[in-house]
Specification:
Blueprint (H helix, E strand, L loop, with lengths): L1 H11 L3 H22 L10 E5 L2 E2 L3 E3 L5 E2 L1 H12 L7 E5 L2 H9 L5 E2 L13 E3 L7 E7 L13 E5 L3 H9 L4 E5 L2 H9 L5 E5 H10 L3 E8 L8 E3 L3 H16 L2 H9 L14
Parallel strand pairs: 1-5, 1-6, 9-10, 9-11
Antiparallel strand pairs: 2-3, 3-4, 6-13, 7-13, 8-11, 8-12
Helix pairs in contact: 3-8, 3-9
The structure holds Deoxyfructosylglutamine.
The site of Deoxyfructosylglutamine (SNW) has 19 residues, from loops.
Length: 278
C-alpha cells in the first residue's frame, strides 16, 4: 500500500511521455536478452514442441511402442535438425485434428504437423511454412459401393472435424448425410461396422486403410493442390517461419524430401516443385 502510494505520487508528477519512455526502457532489456536466448521464439528454447496425429498413417502416426513417425514427422525431424535440434529435442504430442491449430494459436505447441493444408481461412488464426506436400482428398468405401460423387446421395459420409474434407463435403456433397468424427480410426471403425457408408480423408491415409482392410477401396479422388500441406506456427512468429522455410528448401534441394516421399508414399508421383533444382 505504502509502495503503491509512493510510486503513484512520484510518477504522477512526471509528464506522461517520460513515464512511457521509462516503461519502454525497462521493458527493452529483458526482451533483447530473450531474443538472443530464444531466437526462434519457442515456448521452451531447448525443445520444439509439435502437435500431430496418431492415426494419419503414413503422414503422421504412432507405432506400437508409442513413437510418432510418418512422412510429416520424419520431414519435420530432418528440418529441425538443420535448425540445431536433435531428435530428443523435438517432442511430439498427438491430438485430435480440430485441436491442432487452436493449440498452436494459444501457445500449447510451437508447431503442428499433420498434412495440414494451407488455406486463407486457416491463415486468419495461424501462419504456415511453405508447402511441402500436395495431393488428393479421397473417399474410402467398401468394395462395390460408391464410385462417384452422385453415388454419395443419401449415403452417410464420415469426415474428421475441422478438415478440408469436412468443408469440401458440406459444399459439394450436399446430397450426402455427413457424420463427423474426432479422428480417422473412429470413422474407419464406423465404416467397418456399417455405421457409415464411406469416409472422406487424405489420399495416402485412405490407401493405407485400404491395405489394412482389403474390403475398403479408394472410390473418389478430389485434387487439393491449391492447399499444400505446411507446418503450422503461431501467427507472427516470423523468425521460426523463415528458419523452417530455409531448412525445408535445403531438404528439398539435397534430395531428403524425395527420399522420404519415396519411402512413405511409394508409387505416388512427385511434383517438380519439391524436387532438387539443377
Ligand atoms: O490439402 C491437402 C494437401 O494437398 C495434401 O494432399 C495433404 O493433405 C492436405 O493438406 C489436406 N489434409 C486435410 C486438411 O488439411 C486433413 C489433414 C489430416 O487429416 N491430418 O484438413
Amino acid at each position: 500500500m505504502r509502495m503503491t502510494q509512493a510510486f503513484t505520487a512520484r510518477f504522477s508528477r512526471l509528464p506522461a511521455v517520460a513515464f512511457l519512455l521509462a516503461l519502454g526502457m525497462l521493458g527493452s532489456a529483458p526482451l533483447e536478452a530473450n531474443a538472443q536466448d530464444n531466437p526462434l521464439g519457442l515456448i521452451d528454447p531447448a525443445i520444439i514442441s509439435v502437435g500431430t496425429m496418431g492415426d494419419a498413417k503414413p503422414y503422421a502416426f504412432t507405432t506400437a511402442d508409442g513413437n510418432f513417425t510418418g512422412f510429416d514427422i520424419e520431414l519435420f525431424l530432418n528440418v529441425a535438425e538443420r535448425l540445431g535440434f536433435k531428435k530428443d529435442q523435438v517432442v511430439f504430442t498427438g491430438q485430435e485434428f480440430s485441436a491442432l491449430m487452436p493449440s498452436v494459436a494459444n501457445g500449447r505447441f510451437d508447431i503442428a504437423a499433420a498434412a495440414i493444408g494451407t488455406t486463407d481461412k486457416r491463415k486468419e488464426t495461424v501462419d504456415f511454412s511453405d508447402g511441402y506436400l500436395a495431393g488428393f482428398l479421397t473417399v474410402l468405401t467398401p468394395d462395390g459401393g460408391i464410385t462417384d460423387a452422385a453415388g454419395l446421395n443419401g449415403k452417410r459420409l464420415g469426415v474428421v472435424q475441422g478438415t478440408l474434407q469436412e468443408i469440401y463435403a458440406e459444399k459439394n456433397f450436399t446430397g450426402a448425410d455427413l457424420v463427423k468424427f474426432p479422428d480417422n480410426n473412429s470413422a474407419v471403425s464406423g465404416l467397418n461396422n456399417g455405421t457409415i457408408d464411406a469416409h472422406f480423408l487424405d489420399y495416402e491415409a485412405a490407401k493405407d486403410y485400404s491395405a489394412r482392410y482389403p474390403d475398403l477401396k479408394v472410390a473418389i479422388n478430389i485434387p487439393s493442390f491449391d492447399a499444400p500441406a505446411g507446418f503450422v506456427i503461431r501467427k507472427g512468429n516470423d523468425a521460426l517461419r523463415e528458419a523452417l522455410n530455409k531448412a525445408l528448401h535445403d531438404a528439398m534441394q539435397d534430395g531428403t524430401w524425395k527420399t522420404l516421399h519415396e519411402k512413405w508414399f511409394p508409387g505416388t508421383p512427385m511434383p517438380d516443385t519439391y524436387l532438387p533444382k539443377p
